[in-house]
Amino acid sequence: MDDISHYKLRDETPENIARAIYVVNRHAKTAPNPKYLYYLKKKALQKLIAEGKATKKGLHYSKNPKLSKQQSDVLVLAGNYYFHMPPTKEDFQNLPHLGSLNNSYRNPKTNLSLSKAKNLLEYYIGMDKANRPLSSPKRFHRHTYQKPVFKRLGERYD
């Protein structure tokens, strides 16, 4: 297992950014509100691609298409990690279609906390403290169960 906890938080090598994206993406898949995590992933991948530190390899059929329609995702190589992101119109024109996803490949595991990964990506994409959400929205507390009150026929509920 790779451990980047001993690295400086601001160590912005493409490999460290890719590790942070991997951790954020892994947590987003099971998070109750994954929107912000997917936003971080998308912005970081776009910046890596713009800087020439990541490359778009091709298009894959989506594993979970919306409304049972066939859909494609862009396969992006960043460091030793592969990621999927939504395609643009230009991607359909410029990238080869690679067919179905190869399930035999797995990204390398990494040992990095979600908070460190988020901090690294926020710093990398240039997100200032004012625009950053403080925490995920708090869930509503469930009310304790109350037995229903039954009145006799003709009695009032006050």
UniProtKB/TrEMBL annotation:
Pfam families: YkyB
Full protein name: YkyB-like protein
Phylogenetic placement of the source organism: Bacteria, Bacillati, Bacillota, Bacilli, Bacillales
